Structures are given as structure tokens and as C-alpha cells.
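Whiteboard transcription, Tuesday session. T.W. wrote the C-alpha cells on the left side:
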């Protein structure tokens, strides 16, 4: 954490670094190697822990803009229209998007990787104007980016049936992209943040 001159090195627990079982309640076969990619990553991290500590070159502070109402939301959606890259995510009431009571609670959006826009979902869903602006924002971007974005799109199409996925030009999922780079690594936002950003 650069602002506090503190360095954090996430690693797996000892049971993952040195697995003792290859099947439930059965010891590792003698001809098996008991270390794995987590073990190798731990030793790489240990080298980093014991080595010189250097902050990444780019530690600019990020900025969070919170929409205070439907007018703020309209301004944000217009600002994010025609973006080269549109990254967005949702927070939801359930992992089961298909349940009737499951809802999106908020959206977070960024077009530059430095400023994040937080919008309570009702500011979009309860305004016909903002529903239309949200769709236009998604249709106009060159590339839409998300983490497990299929999940967010399921929710969106359930709560905004007028959203037409066929009008989106291109979608990238950071989980799939990370898998293409290295299929051994555990996926997830925390892992991706650690591997590919200074945070």
C-alpha cells in the first residue's frame, strides 16, 4: 500500500503450498511431486519480501465520484458515452440473477482507469431518460470490459429488457483474458489486481 509505505505479499496457506493428500484421506503417492504452482509463486514472493522494496512507478490516487441523484447520473452517463474502453461492474443482492427478488444495487463505471463513478441502480432504473442513456453509453463504446461480465449482463437484461446486447460492439472479460495469459493462476478480482496493477 504505497501511501503508507507498507508492502503486502499475498500467498496461499501452508496446506496449499505443500499438499499432503492427492485424494481424500490418501497420502501423496511417492512418485508425485508435492509442490505446485502455488509453491513456486510463494518462493517468488519470498524473494520479493527479502529484496529491496520499490513502489511501482505509477501510484496516482484514484478518484471516486458518487452520483447524488438522477441529474448527476445523467451527467455521468453522458460523460462516459463514446468511450474507447468502458469498464463497469455491479453489486447485486444475490448470486442467483434469475430469481425474481434478485436486484442490482449499484453500478460502478470507469472510462480512464483513474476516475470511478458510483451510481445507485435506482437512479438509472427509475428514470426513462437514464435507462436510455445507459443503453447508449454501452452501445457507443469501442470495448466494454468487465469481470465475469456475463453475470452482470444477465442481471442487466433482466432489469432492463430494452437493453440490446447485439448493439454492443465488443466485450472483453478480464477473467477470460487472464486465463489466456496464464491458465495456472487463480482467477478473481483480488488476484487480477495484484498481478496486473500496482494495488
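and on the right, the sequence the group agreed on:
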Amino acid at each position: 500500500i504505497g501511501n503508507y509505505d507498507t508492502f503486502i505479499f499475498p500467498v496461499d496457506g501452508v496446506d496449499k503450498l505443500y499438499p499432503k493428500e492427492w485424494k481424500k484421506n490418501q497420502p501423496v503417492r511417492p512418485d508425485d511431486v508435492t509442490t505446485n504452482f502455488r509453491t513456486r509463486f510463494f518462493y517468488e514472493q519470498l524473494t520479493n519480501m527479502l529484496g529491496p522494496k520499490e513502489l511501482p512507478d505509477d501510484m496516482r490516487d484514484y478518484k471516486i465520484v458518487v452520483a447524488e441523484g438522477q441529474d448527476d447520473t445523467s451527467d455521468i452517463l453522458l460523460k462516459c458515452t463514446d468511450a474507447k474502453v468502458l469498464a463497469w461492474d455491479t453489486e447485486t443482492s444475490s448470486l442467483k440473477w434469475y430469481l425474481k427478488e434478485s436486484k442490482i444495487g449499484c453500478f460502478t463505471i470507469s472510462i480512464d482507469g483513474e476516475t470511478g463513478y458510483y451510481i445507485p441502480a435506482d437512479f438509472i432504473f427509475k428514470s426513462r431518460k437514464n435507462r436510455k442513456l445507459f443503453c447508449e453509453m454501452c452501445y457507443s463504446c469501442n470495448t466494454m470490459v468487465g469481470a465475469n461480465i456475463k453475470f452482470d449482463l444477465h442481471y442487466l437484461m433482466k432489469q432492463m429488457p430494452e437493453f440490446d446486447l447485439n448493439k454492443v460492439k465488443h466485450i472483453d472479460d478480464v477473467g477470460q483474458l487472464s486465463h489466456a495469459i496464464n491458465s495456472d493462476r487463480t482467477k478473481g478480482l483480488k488476484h487480477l489486481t495484484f498481478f496486473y496493477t500496482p494495488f
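Someone added at the bottom: The chain has a mean pLDDT of 86.
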